[in-house]
Design a protein that fits this description.
Bound molecules: zinc ion
Number of domains: 1
Order of helices and strands: HHHEEHEHHEHHEEHEEHHEH
Number of strands: 9
Radius of gyration: 20 Å
CATH architecture: 3-Layer(aba) Sandwich
Structural class: alpha/beta
CATH topology: Aminopeptidase
Distance between the termini: 44 Å
């Protein structure tokens, strides 16, 4: 029902592929459409959802430079276990359990980090639907999700639906599904004063992204120009990444994901600077996730291969790496398709994007429960 008019817009957009865009042009490219009720592309929906929770426990964990709250929603009781050292000291003592005695917990703990890149609302939608499932048994499309909820009830779930509220607030399109990679370039990485795209990975060469040369600040960044995926974790520039890491440090999750989106099929990425055994665990998790996606006729990408970090330049140490190094969690990045209309993009509908997200969460819960 949505595809018809959107494809027309998208084809026109692809034909105009350019190296830059103005805000007026970017706004004109947003399709006129009513997004389905299950799609969550703005913070107002998140506030309304978390305000009404009875079962989920809501905590504000940070206030952004734009004065927006960043919330954590938890389901399942927190179990108090031995916790007498920070993670790296515990590893130094050769006793991981003195950081967090995970084996003494009855339930595994999973940390879901929603989009730190504001235009990647696929993860925001997914996590708000997961919150709805845990709260009511139904997703925001009104579908009963008994299996997912039953798995979730056997875990403690820590859900940060919006990892970068400022970036999400700047994302007027609410989704780029059916649009073009140029729209992602505009809304995601932003533009310089000559209206040229900052682009990827060029958007990372100036950080924080502030100064006279910045025109449209991309949704990658908070209002102070910080991209939480690449904050300076040892001397933080913004409040979002430290808040996420504090949750990880205090809770010692068994498993953690940072939700992102890209042009291609759903992919679990190799986490950089993690021990080979943890990287192999991520590969195992990817195998179960892809199997479940396949079973549901949903696309998936290639498996991540455990590897040493090497090359010039090597992979960056990012938020996903930092989550491991502060909590020992099996930590990984998931890339969901945006559902762009460009020829080589992974073509998925909004409904399929929701199902990809919920399938990932189910696979994560199943994997972590099986491992115990
Ligand atoms: Zn991203």
């Amino acid at each position: 029902m949505i595809l018809g008019p959107m494809c027309t817009v998208a084809v026109a957009a692809v034909a105009q592929a350019a190296d830059g865009m103005t805000l007026v042009e970017a706004r004109a490219r947003i399709p006129q459409r009513e997004l389905p009720a299950f799609w969550v592309g703005d913070l107002e929906r998140v506030s309304a959802l978390v305000a009404g929770l009875q079962r989920g426990q809501v905590t504000t964990i940070a206030t952004t430079p734009g004065r927006r709250p960043m919330v954590l929603v938890a389901f399942g009781e927190r179990e108090v276990v031995q916790h007498i050292a920070n993670f790296n000291s515990a590893i130094g003592a050769r006793e991981p359990a003195v950081y967090m005695d995970r084996a003494a917990r009855k339930k595994p703990v999973i940390l879901f980090v929603g989009p730190v890149h504001g235009q990647e609302t696929e993860g925001l939608t997914g996590l708000c639907n997961l919150i709805s499932v845990m709260e009511t048994g139904r997703d925001l499309a009104g579908r009963e999700q008994a299996q997912l909820r039953a798995l979730g009830e056997r875990c403690r779930l820590l859900i940060i639906p919006a990892g970068n509220p400022d970036g999400i607030a700047r994302f007027e399109a609410k989704t780029v599904q059916g649009m073009s990679v140029d729209d992602v370039r505009f809304w995601g990485q932003g533009t310089y004063t000559d209206d040229k795209f900052c682009g990827w990975p060029g958007c990372k060469r100036q950080h924080p992204m502030v100064g006279d040369n910045v025109k449209f600040l991309g949704c990658y960044f908070n209002d102070a120009g910080v991209n939480p995926m690449h904050d300076e974790f040892f001397a933080p520039m913004g409040p979002e990444a430290p808040a996420i890491l504090k949750v990880a440090m205090e809770e010692g999750p068994d498993l953690a994901v940072s939700l992102h989106s890209h042009e291609s099929a759903p992919s679990v990425l190799r986490p950089a600077y993690l021990p080979m055994e943890t990287q192999e665990a991520v590969r195992g998790l990817a195998e179960s996730c892809y199997a479940l996606l396949k079973e549901r006729d949903l696309p998936h990408g290639g498996l991540p291969a455990a590897d040493a970090d090497r090359g010039n330049p090597p992979a960056p140490f990012n938020l996903t790496s930092a989550i491991y190094h502060i909590s020992g969690a099996t930590s990984f990045t998931f890339e969901c398709p945006h559902g762009l209309a460009d020829e080589k993009s992974c073509h998925v509908t909004l409904e399929q994007i929701l199902d990809i997200q919920l399938t990932l969460y189910e696979a994560m819960m199943g994997w972590v429960l099986e491992g115990r």
